[in-house]
Amino acid sequence: MVLIVLSTAASPASAAVAHRLNTVLDPITIAPGTPEDSYLASLSGVLAQRDVPARPHRIAYTIDLTEVADLVELGFEGIQDVIVAAAAEEDPCQLRGTIFHCLRTGVRPAAGWVIMLGSFSVTPTSNARSGDGGQITVTARVDEGPITTSTSQVRIGESVDLATLNKEKVSAAPGRAVRVSPRVRNVGTAPVRGAVLGIWADRKLIDTDASNCFYSYQIFCVFDTALAPGRTYALATPLVLRTPADAAAGSRADVGLSWLTPALWEDQKKILHGLQGKPGRGTALRLVPAAGAAEVPQVDVDGDNDQGLVQLTVAGSRRPALAISAPAVTLAPGRTATVRFGITNRGPGTLYPTLFGNTALSTWLTLPKGVTVAKADKRCYPEFARSEWSCHQGDAALPAGHATTFVFRLTAAKGFTGASARVEVRDAWLDGARVLRIGVSAGGAGGGLPVSGPTAWPGLLLVVLGAVLLRVGRRAR
Description:
The chain is mostly beta strands. It is built from one helix and 35 strands.
């Protein structure tokens, strides 16, 4: 994983810029005997100057393994272009001797900055011994710009195995706290010199402020405790989770827990580029006090057992009611009209999409044949051949009495004679749904329609309108 913070300053027109690409290959700390294809390292690049508007580029780069060829083998696994618009190459990287030679064409940097260059499996060789190390050298060039060089550290560590013991469900009423104690067990045969607890949750849910924890997009708590083989350790002071005072009942957050060795924490800090967060100010959390100084780096050889989960649910039986706003509209052939649709939270409680994943609402607008989008809401994006658009509530909370509304300008073809439509709010928290069908003539009255049926929130509502097909739902996380 690479976390990159981008400047918003604009640059001159990209055609006039000889782009410089700064590359980052994840540092590698691996133990002898690590199974093949179980360890991945990512390579990415960030342009020194923003490319606006983003245009296609040719990226030539090399990955030189000469210094570590006796220690590790790398295999090209593909490019994760989740946020990058790029031309597809079946295999842009070729290994010649101990050097990967890679070429990508037609690459448009995400947000004008970021270019993903590949994921690589890492496997230790039979010659790798604990304490060995070296560097991988990466060079890169964008179009006819300057060649840049970066290095990444490779370390061969000692095999250890930490296992988390937390897989539990807890609940707390709005504004109340619940305490959990993350636990870890050394299931290996060697002592583990220190441990780092990673907590994957929004800071607003964590009511523990400890001086040995670093707070940012995630939380890392560092312990110098020596963990003996076969022993289990827990926090001496439980971790406090607290829900917002106005949180909607039924809101659910998955708090991820993971345990790292100090060596992997060092790698994580490099990947985060110093953005691991600021330390807290309160009393330090403790496992079992013990002194230990790292010598050979230690590597957790089983990454499948060091992940835990605490599922936090806001207690209460009264879940908020939603009202759908989808007024009918008449589209004259060859003309353009404005369409507004959305959801009102009638309460009780506030929806916090960044804290509780199951309260994030997404809306889909599906157009019938003969209707096109002249202008879309800025929070909406085309899905399938621009006939379906996904609209997102975003990170903003939705308090009781407030609404999320999306605005479109739609144009009807000259031969358009009308079409049916529907609005549906899917049940975000329960399996199944209730359906209500209402006939509305073209150009007839619409308005805010409450979800009805025994499962009032969120339920499922279908409305036949006159001109467009609106589908409102929750996007799964």
